[in-house]
């Protein structure tokens, strides 16, 4: 009996030791890969996130899967990385997010169309490629569901999409990125482009009603009804420029143009908006670091700081704009200067070999409860979060476009 107990204990300890060694070996292998001098910044960030968040729905530190824009943003960047590298790990990670939320009938878990939240559209961008590869109908049904939301989305009197059901008559810059790249891709792929004028109209409304003629920058949001306490009573504009909102807008332009036919009469108009924004952004770029401040046009005001998500978004949009031929070549230098700032000023290398992007604004909005007034003090005092998905996704996109 004692001999059997001894043998069992011996085998158990051996097995635990083997598991421990295997775990240590795996961690060592991951660290070796992450610290490889040949690894590009895009893969370094993606592999860091995948190591720390084995399931893509965990990217914002949650334990239960949710259909959300932050996951759509980061998985979209990793999907782009898959296209560049062919590394199946990236494809499986992205597909894993879709499969965690979409059942066999195409129903999207946690998604509620009746909220008419335009943020919920962006995660569907990853489904085009997954459907093309798998031919599984559930992904098409999910895309059709999101398309139905846009069809029924409440609109301002001028025809602009409300940001959410709870924000009547308000267009936020964020919403252009959340809705328009998917809208463009879908209408070109499945509807013969019949809604392209409507896509362009969303940009036209903000260019007309939300832009500051002096700086060329756009405010965070526009309330067509002018009823919101944060809205200017004459113009409906919110009080300040927020870099991430401008970053969403810049990314919306370059991503919409991916699927906007060159021969369409509105295409040049969108390219013009991108050029105007690029000129305005270069003027407020911090010349020393290449980065942009949280409140974009107030670098010297107390409390303002160089912010990672907006800076990553601008680097991406400007680099892609040059690569696609929409912007003059000089803006590639502006983008590289920004990326230098991100990697030398805001990136921290951690003990596990992974990287952390610091100085990321965690969240900012307008209205709601507790009330957000859009003041300077509001923006600079919102919480920061290291490796926030709203920064890491654009960082990966920027690194890919700059081939860094």
TrEMBL record:
GO-annotated biological processes: carbohydrate metabolic process
Stretch forming the signal peptide: none
Transmembrane feature ranges: none
PROSITE patterns xref list: PROKAR_LIPOPROTEIN
Keywords per UniProt: Hydrolase
InterPro entries (alphabetical): 6-hairpin_glycosidase_sf, 6hp_glycosidase-like_sf, Glyco_hydro_88, PolySaccharide_Degr_Enz
A GO molecular-function annotation: hydrolase activity
Pfam families, alphabetized: Glyco_hydro_88
PANTHER family: UNSATURATED RHAMNOGALACTURONAN HYDROLASE (EUROFUNG)
Protein name: Glycosyl hydrolase family 88
Species whose genome carries this gene: Flavobacterium seoulense
């Amino acid at each position: 009996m004692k001999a059997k107990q001894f043998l069992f204990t011996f085998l158990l300890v051996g097995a635990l030791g083997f598991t421990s060694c295997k775990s240590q070996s795996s961690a060592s292998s991951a660290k070796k890969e992450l610290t490889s001098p040949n690894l590009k910044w895009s893969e370094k960030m993606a592999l860091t996130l995948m190591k720390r968040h084995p399931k893509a729905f965990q990217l914002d530190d949650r334990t239960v899967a949710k259909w959300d824009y932050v996951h759509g943003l980061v998985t979209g960047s990793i999907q782009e990385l898959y296209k560049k590298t062919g590394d199946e790990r990236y494809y499986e990670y992205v597909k894993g997010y879709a499969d965690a939320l979409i059942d066999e009938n195409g129903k999207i878990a946690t998604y509620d169309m009746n909220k008419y939240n335009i943020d919920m559209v962006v995660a569907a961008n990853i489904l085009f490629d997954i459907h093309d590869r798998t031919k599984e109908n559930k992904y098409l049904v999910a895309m059709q569901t999101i398309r139905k939301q846009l069809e029924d989305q409440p609109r301002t009197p001028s025809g602009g999409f409300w940001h959410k059901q709870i924000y009547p008559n308000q267009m936020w810059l964020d919403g252009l990125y959340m809705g328009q790249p998917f809208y463009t891709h879908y209408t070109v792929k499945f509807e013969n482009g019949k809604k392209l004028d409507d896509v362009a109209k969303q940009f036209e409304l903000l260019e007309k009603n939300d832009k500051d003629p002096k700086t060329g920058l756009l405010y965070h949001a526009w309330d067509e009804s002018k009823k919101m306490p944060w809205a200017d009573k004459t113009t409906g504009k919110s009080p300040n420029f927020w870099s991430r909102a401008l970053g969403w807008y810049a990314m919306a332009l370059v991503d919409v143009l991916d699927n906007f036919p060159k021969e369409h009469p509105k295409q040049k108009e969108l390219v013009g908006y991108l050029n105007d924004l690029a000129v305005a952004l270069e003027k407020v770029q911090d010349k020393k670091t290449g980065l942009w401040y949280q409140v974009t046009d107030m670098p010297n005001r107390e409390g303002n700081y160089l912010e990672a998500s907006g800076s990553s978004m601008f680097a991406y949009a400007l680099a892609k704009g040059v690569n696609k031929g929409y912007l003059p070549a000089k803006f590639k230098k502006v983008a590289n200067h920004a990326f230098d700032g991100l990697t030398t000023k805001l990136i921290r290398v951690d003990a596990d070999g992974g990287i952390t992007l610091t100085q990321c604004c965690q969240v900012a909005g307008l209205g709601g409860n507790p009330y957000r007034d859009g003041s300077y003090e509001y923006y600079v005092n919102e919480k920061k979060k290291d490796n926030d998905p709203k920064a890491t996704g654009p960082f990966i996109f920027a690194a890919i476009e700059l081939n860094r």
